[in-house]
Amino acid sequence: MLHSTTLPSLRRIDINFKPLGVSLLLILLGAWYLAQEVGPRQSALFIVGALLGVSLYHASFGFTSAWRVFIADGRGAGLRAQMLMLGIGVLLFFPVLASGTLFGNPVSGLVSPAGTSVIVGAFLFGIGMQLGGGCASGTLYTVGGGSTRMVVTLIAFIAGSVIATAHMPFWTAQPQLKPISLVTVLGLVPALVLNLAVFAAIAAITVAVEKRRHGRLVISEVQPVQGSRWLHGPWPLLAGAIALVILNFATLALAGRPWGVTSDFALWGAKAASGMGIDIASWTYWSSKSNAAALAAPVSHDITSVMDFGIVVGAMLAAALAGRYAPVWRLPLRSLAAAVVGGLMLGYGARLAYGCNIGAYFSGILSGSLHGWLWLVAAFAGNVFGTRLRPWFGLEVERVKASGC
Q1: How far is Cα 36 from Cα 41, in angstroms, rounded to an integer?
Q2: ∠ at Cα 60 (405, 312), nearest 5°?
Q3: How many CB atoms lie under 10 A from the CB of residue 107?
Q4: I need a surface site. Which of 43, 209, 240, 315 has the fewest CB within 10 A?
Q5: How far is it, in rounded angstroms, from Cα 88 to Cα 239?
Q6: How far is it, in rounded angstroms, from Cα 392 to Cα 395?
Q7: Model confidence over 363-379: pLDDT tens digits?
Q8: What is the per-residue pLDDT for 329?
Q9: In b/e form, how buried is each residue of 21-43, taking b as 16+ CB within 10 angstroms?
């Protein structure tokens, strides 16, 4: 007789073959189309996006849940994985950004102003993370994984992004510092030492908090499945962190700048609004040279759009391989309301803060941008507030029983 603890490892894998076939076909056709219509780099970025979708889904690498379980229950494994991700990232990114080139091509970081708009936007984004049920990358990979609730969040995310572009002249006029790169201001080695020290300090704080709350570090082992864990999932959290860093670095090499997610949400919404007869092009935000060009061009020419499409289909592929692609169409009313409110706050906050958990936090800190650290502080405060609001909308706040061992 087998001991009961061995049963999970013998669980049969039920692959969802139809969505698996659809996702593979979309990846192949998308890569071929982009290579023909735009160029091989755009095609490669689409593939990188798909790999990001697989990594995010298989590792369940969500920023939202990691922050929530630490805020509500003192468990810090997700935050420690983020600190490892950032630590490896700055070791890769800072030397390259200091030199200004990678493989002979010019590269630059996502360095933005730090001030009022970042504080307000990141705080709103933090609340939206907890109500909407995901961050920017989390919204995309869960949509690809078959979450119908997150489709609602994404639609509201897009709407909030467009509304924010109408208000950007007001927010950019508020007090703020000019874009500051710590790599440029401090120099390569001091910037590396400072960032690594802060990452280590944050990780140490999570360990202290977790031990004080539970008496030990809480280990939540993912259940292995029969067959290849790397093909079918789930992956260890740390493996997901390393994969995201490597794929972000690949984005830097191909696009000349780090990974971003949300700028295209505003673009998609603006194109839709223009199609309905709204004169979006006359808005100040869309009158700048770069934004006007993006509004006029096909979305296939927009790097962020292409990568986001890749994330969705990559996550669909991962969910199908894991046998978990099963959309649920009936949603509780309060949960639906939270998705709408949270999505609007996510979209509005991301524009004000010059990015989201990817463009401002992950890639912003890897770029040495001061605004990335300001985003982290303000967004964490928003997550604290948002976590307390979740029960009002019938949303779970995950907790485990305290242990003295």
Answers
A1: 11
A2: 170
A3: 18
A4: 209
A5: 12
A6: 7
A7: 999 999 999 999 999 99
A8: 78
A9: ebbeebbeebbeebeeebeeebb
Which structure tokens are listed for 203?
């990780």
Residue in the structure block whose two tokens are 């029969």 = 226
Question: 322, 58 in Cβ contact below 8 A?
Answer: yes
> For position 84, what pLDDT does the model report?
97
| Region for 387 from its dihedrals, namely left if φ exceeds 0, alpha if ψ lies in -120 to 50, beta otherwise | alpha
What stretches of 353-396 show up as alpha helix (H) in DSSP? 363-366, 370-389
241 CB-contact burial (10 Å; exposed 0-12 / middle 13-18 / buried 19+): buried
Distance, in Å, from the CA atom of 184 to the CA atom of 17, rounded to the nearest integer, reads 50
Beta-strand pair 101-102/105-106: antiparallel
Would you state the structure tokens that stand for residue 192, as one six-digit string? 């590396």
Token pair, residue 161, equals 């992004």
Which residues partner with 101 through β-bridges?
A: 106
Contacts of 233-236 spanning 24+ positions with Cβ under 8 A: 233/57, 233/58, 233/59, 233/318, 233/321, 233/322, 234/58, 234/59, 234/60, 234/322, 235/55, 235/58, 235/59, 236/59
Q: What is the pLDDT of residue 221?
A: 59
Residues 124 and 344: their CA atoms lie apart, in Å, by: 9
Rg, Å, the chain Cα set: 21
Q: What is the DSSP letter of 5?
A: G
- Residue 115: per-residue pLDDT: 97
pLDDT of residue 4: 34
List the alpha helices (DSSP H) in 38-115. Answer: 40-58, 63-73, 77-99
Where the chain has pLDDT below 50, the residues are 1-11, 402-405
Q: What is the pLDDT of residue 11?
A: 46
Tell me 173's DSSP state. Answer: T
